[in-house]
Amino acid sequence: MSRTIILGIESSCDDTSAAIIADGVILSNVTAGQAVHEAYGGVVPELASRCHQQNIVPVVSEAIKRAGITKEDLSAVAFTRGPGLMGSLLVGTSFAKGLSSGLRIPMVDINHLQAHVLAHFIKESEDDTDQPSYPFLCLLVSGGNSQIIKVTSYKDMEVIGQTIDDAAGEAFDKCAKVMGLGYPGGPIVDKLAKLGDPESFKFSKPQIKGFDYSFSGLKTSFLYTLRDNIKFNENFIEENKENLCASLQKTIVDILMDKLRKAVKETGIKEVAVAGGVSANSAVRQAFLDHADKYGWKVHIPKFAFTTDNAAMVAITGYYKYLDKDFCSYDKTPFARVTI
Rounded distance, CA 14 to CA 34, Å? Predict the structure, then answer.
């Protein structure tokens, strides 16, 4: 019996990634980052799309090579159609169309946000059974999204809570930027927070109804704390950066988990996953383990390789859509914005 082999392509932001999945099992996952953006303190869309053009052929070639297959073995090509940066998405979409046409295999378009959720279904081996059971709740946290999603099946997802302004990852990055810590800020804050006291500073927590989030007030509170203390001590940030990072991180994690606890209580669903770039944060991961112990949740925390943008999550989503014969026509174009 022939295997179902999916090539996944991810190019929504500044990472060019390609992965091969065979019958749900990952064979390879190759990612090329873009260091060019560090000098600008954020992703420059025009530079990102140019780098994707340079990276996509060698990255796809390497993914196929590492998987031990040939391009003729592919059953379909899955690609991120959105949301993301339009120029970056166009590179991945155009490549997928060309490959699909040349090999005469189907093309599967993937919602980037759904793919983050379904990263939990990537199997490392055939006997890997550590996947969530439906229904489950997923906290999707990244630089652009903070959402609580009720997942009933791979194609049936409902956003029951989301940020009304900034995302959690954005709060990490922007607060790190005003402290002069560099980009991306999230991992730097996480590293410094391990050396600080999370109770040193108190920042504002929003009072939003339902399961929705808000992080703009926290950012303002953080900024005012810096401003007011620098008046009396120009070295305030340097002398307190570990404590500032620890307190900031604790506040963000508290905000995230407060609403998630509420969602678990009201839905009665105790199977809970976390996904997205911020799920690599050590305090977020520890909070999930603590809640599993304290509240009896069954938690699912992704491997680090599947937290940030990667093609393995695109390939596994493509695998499920392929089995349903949910293919994409050549006239479909990328979209910069979309929800689940």
Answer: 6
User: Does the predicted model carry a pTM greater than 0.90?
Assistant: yes
CA distance 98 to 104: 10
Which domains are delineated in the chain? 5-129+306-323 (3.30.420.40), 136-302 (3.30.420.40)
Apex 136 CA angle, 28 and 313, nearest 5: 15
- Running DSSP on this structure, what letter comes out for residue 68? T
Question: What CA–CA distances, in Å, run from 235 to 112, 203, 241?
Answer: 42, 20, 10
Give the count of alpha carbons within 13 A of 17, CB side only.
Answer: 27
* Residues 6+ away with beta carbon under 8 Å from 331: none
Q: Work out the number of other CB atoms within 10 angstroms of the CB of residue 42.
A: 15
CA neighbor of 192 nearest in space, from 235, 248, 146, 137: 248
Cis peptide before 184 (omega within 30 of 0): yes
Tell me if 119 sits within 8 A of 315, measured CB to CB: no
CB within 8 Å of 240: residues ≥ 6 apart: 200, 229
pLDDT tens-place string over residues 92-145: 999 999 999 999 999 999 999 999 999 999 999 998 888 999 999 999 998 788
Side chain identity, residue 210 = G
